[in-house]
Write a structure and sequence with these properties.
Shape: elongated
Distance between the termini: 81 Å
Oligomer: single chain
Radius of gyration: 22 Å
Order of helices and strands: HHH
Number of helices: 3
Helix content: over 70%
Number of domains: 2
Largest sheet: none
Strand content: under 5%
Length: 108
């Protein structure tokens, strides 16, 4: 009987936590921010550096990091978010470069 009750409690907890995940994801999307980089020339190193700085600032804002050092949960949040944002920036630059390559003329 005890085992059955514990199993039922575990299943109930799993169901409740599974239903909470989409709600949390939806809430995060609502509070998400956007960032424009249309004004940047990603063909220049200055444009790519500015893109990286914007993503870094977005990670700081998302995680509540102020100043040079983050503490506790903010530190973990910043570490993981900034890594994810670095990948986003690399994808954007790679996309830009491949589109530039696609617009070239093939000369014979």
């Amino acid at each position: 009987m005890k085992t059955r009750t514990l199993a039922l409690a575990a299943v109930s907890a799993a169901i409740l936590s599974a239903s909470a995940v989409p709600a949390m994801a939806a809430e995060e999307q609502k509070s998400g921010s956007s960032m424009s980089y249309a004004d940047l020339d990603l063909g220049t190193s200055a444009g790519r550096v500015e893109l990286a700085q914007r993503f870094d600032q977005a990670a700081r804002e998302k995680c509540g990091v102020t100043g040079d050092k983050a503490k506790g949960n903010a530190k973990y949040c910043y570490k993981t978010t900034s890594e994810q944002y670095r990948h986003f920036a690399a994808d954007i630059i790679r996309d830009y470069q491949s589109k530039k390559a696609d617009t070239g003329l093939a000369l014979r």
